[in-house]
Amino acid sequence: MLNRRNFIKTIVGTSVAVPGILNANDNLGKDIKFDEIADVIIIGSGVSAHICAAYLVKNKIDVLMIEKMDRIGGNSALSQQDFAVLNSDLQIKAGIKDSEELFLNDLNKAGAGYNHLEHSLRIIRNSNEAYEFAKSCGVKYADKLKFLGGHSVARSVETIGGGGACISTLNEFFIKHNGKIKNETKCDEIIQDESGKIIGVSVRENYRFNRNLANDDRENLSGDKKHYKARLAVVFATGGFSRDIEFRSIVNPRLRLAKSPSSLGQTAGALKQMLKVGAIPTQLALSRFSFGIPTEDLIYGIMVDCNAKRFLNEDGDRQGLSNKILAHMEKINTTIYPIIIFDSTGFANSHDPNRMQSFITAGKMKKFDSLSDLANNFKLNENDLSKTMQDYETGISNNKDEFKKDLSKIKNSSMSKAPFYAMTAAPGLSYTPGGVYADINMRVLNISNYEPIKGLYAIGEATGGVHGQSRLTSCSIPDCMTSGIACAKDILKGV
């Protein structure tokens, strides 16, 4: 009987006949004159790219990193960078009993069994090594642990200064060790030799991303074409495709209406290049949403659509709520996001009132002295909104909610006591779990025979199947860092 791990081992060693078009790539490199040569070319400049590059340059490897945007870091620079680590110095200091089994159970619960076991173990077993390596490069972490949702114990460390500080520090380390980086340089195509080995990339220098184009990958022709040769490997650390509305709507139509807080450069162009040389796409339809407000607080309020009507039980996790919101918007044929409303008692019941207050300060949430002001601000019919709130109050009185919310959990919250607080409920597609499939050494496998495509690696969010249905909180960074180091170690084997 084959379990998942054995299945992967089996398919890696098995030849499978597929149409030759799956490997079609006309860009064979024998007649190309190269403009740049490096041992390793890394595409992208987020945390997975930088940790891989730092490991390589520390071992005297000549690395060229290219970034299509005008600044480095991508999504990594925007993130908080909480970092789940097994058996960190902080866990030992605090006497916290953690284990591989506990961590794996947490990952499997979030991933709902869609996550590949070998990658879960890669993250768990190598998280502390990655954490210590990042510290050796100068990245600073707070002297306290976080006990975050979905984790059985406190195991997440906090990056001081967040993603911006982490990327800046790793970049300084990279440059100090003779690493080279080129911004506004877009990879257009992967170059193979006659044996199929990846030997370089075609790029455009002086490329300028154009946010006004419907599809920058297809329509933007800016820049000067060049060819770069890689003596050892090409590494794709290109992130996900959450900003590519056209592509994400094809792989999952429900994602069409989602917002995305991600970096503008999160498009599917790099993924398509890897698919063109035979990479295996996996789990492209999955999604991970952010919500803009802790979803555990929503039970203290109500959510109404553009018709001022409730349509769901507000007690849920962000994945479930986001899917219900997007499905309802499709159903009533609107692009207008629902509104979350609290009265003064519901607002005060938040598990973190200071954070709720910060939303008001930032302008994300608004305070209204009357229901009329709230309705006018969000262009809701005041009479319909008033009736919806009265119906909700009646349900509380009768201890029976129309959408089966457990009213015993709302801590006497109501919908009648001004002032009122409201904000838009816009599911944000912050992470795309799908990508290309790579083995635990981050070698990209070929769909024609499930063997590594020589010279081609993918790390971080560019890969798929790692987290499954939903990525556990604070597990992006251990994935990015452990995959970056695993990739670097495998490249070093060939030196």
Strand content: 15-25%
Described by strand count, sense and barrel closure, the largest sheet is: 8 strands, mixed
Q: What is the overall shape? A: globular
* Beta-strand segment tally: 19
Explain the overall architecture:
This protein is α+β, with helices and mostly antiparallel strands. It has helices at 4-12, 47-58, 89-94, 100-111, 117-136, 162-176, 216-219, 245-251, 269-276, 318-331, 344-348, 353-362, 371-378, 382-398, 476-493; strands spanning 36-43, 63-66, 82-84, 141-146, 156-159, 180-182, 186-192, 198-205, 224-236, 281-282, 288-290, 302-304, 339-342, 366-368, 420-424, 428-431, 435-436, 443-445, 452-458. The strands form five sheets. Strands 1, 2, 6, 7, 8, 9, 18 and 19 form an eight-stranded mixed sheet that branches. Strands 12-13-15-14 form a four-stranded antiparallel sheet. The chain is globular. The model is unreliable at 1-24 (pLDDT under 50).
Brief account:
The protein is α+β, with helices and mostly antiparallel strands. The chain contains 15 helices and 19 strands. The longest helix has 20 residues, at 117-136.
What descriptive keywords fit this protein?
disordered N terminus, 495 residues, 15 helices, globular, alpha+beta, eight-stranded mixed beta sheet, 33% helix, four-stranded antiparallel beta sheet
Topology:
Layout: H1 4-12, E1 36-43, H2 47-58, E2 63-66, E3 82-84, H3 89-94, H4 100-111, H5 117-136, E4 141-146, E5 156-159, H6 162-176, E6 180-182, E7 186-192, E8 198-205, H7 216-219, E9 224-236, H8 245-251, H9 269-276, E10 281-282, E11 288-290, E12 302-304, H10 318-331, E13 339-342, H11 344-348, H12 353-362, E14 366-368, H13 371-378, H14 382-398, E15 420-424, E16 428-431, E17 435-436, E18 443-445, E19 452-458, H15 476-493
Helix pairs in contact: 2-6, 2-15, 4-5, 5-15
